[in-house]
Amino acid sequence: MKDYLNENISGGNIYLSHYFLIRTLANYRVFLVKEEAAPPEYDSGFLDALIKYITENDSEFSEVPLIMLHVNEILLLKTKSDKYYFRLKEMLASGKGITRDHRYSLLNILQTYCVHKEFRGDKNITKERFELYKLALENKFHRGTQDIYFDALLFPSIARIAINAGEFDWAEQFMMKYEKELQRV
C-alpha cells in the first residue's frame, strides 16, 4: 500500500507540474505575440528562468510535446532565429502529440515569423510561406476545431501567396475547392 501511494503521489505531481508548465508557457506565448503589437511593461524573469531550465534539461521534457512546442514558440518569438523556426516547422509537419488547434496556432506563429523575414528583405520567403499553407491544407489544420468557416482573411492570403510563388494552377484549384467553406454573407 505504501509503495502504491508513493507512486500515485509522484505520478500525480509530475502530471500536475506538466499541466502547470503547459498553461504557463501557453500564456507567456500569447503575451509575447501581443507584445509585438503593443509592448506592455512586464517582468518576465521567472518565465525566462523557467525556459532556461527546460532547455538545459530538455531530456526531462522531451516526451511532453506541448511543453517543447511552447518553449520553442517562445524562443522563436523572442530571438527571431531560424533555428527555432525549423524546429517548429518539423513539429508542425509531424503533428506528434499536438492537436489540430495547436497546429493551427503554430501555423500562424510560423507565418508571422515569415512575414517578419519578408519585411527584413528575405525575397525567398514566399515559397516557404506557400509550403506552410499547403501543409496546413493537406493535413486539415487550416482552421481550428471550433471554426465552422474558412477564415475570410486567410483565404485570400493563401491565394495571394500561391500566386506570388508562381503556383497559378494550384491557386486556382485552391479557390475552387475551398470557396464553399467561406461564410456566405
Strand-helix topology:
Blueprint: H1 2-37, H2 45-56, H3 58-61, H4 65-79, H5 82-94, H6 100-119, H7 125-138, H8 154-164, H9 168-178
Helix pairs in contact: 1-4, 4-5, 5-6, 6-7, 7-8, 8-9
Offer a concise description of the structure.
The chain is an all-alpha fold and 185 residues long.
Tell me about this structure.
The protein is mainly α. It is built from nine helices and no strands.
Entry keywords:
0% strand; mainly alpha
Strand content: under 5%
Number of helices: 9
Q: What series of H and E elements makes up the topology?
A: HHHHHHHHH
Number-wise, the strands total: 0
Helical residue percent band: over 70%
Estimated radius of gyration: 19 Å
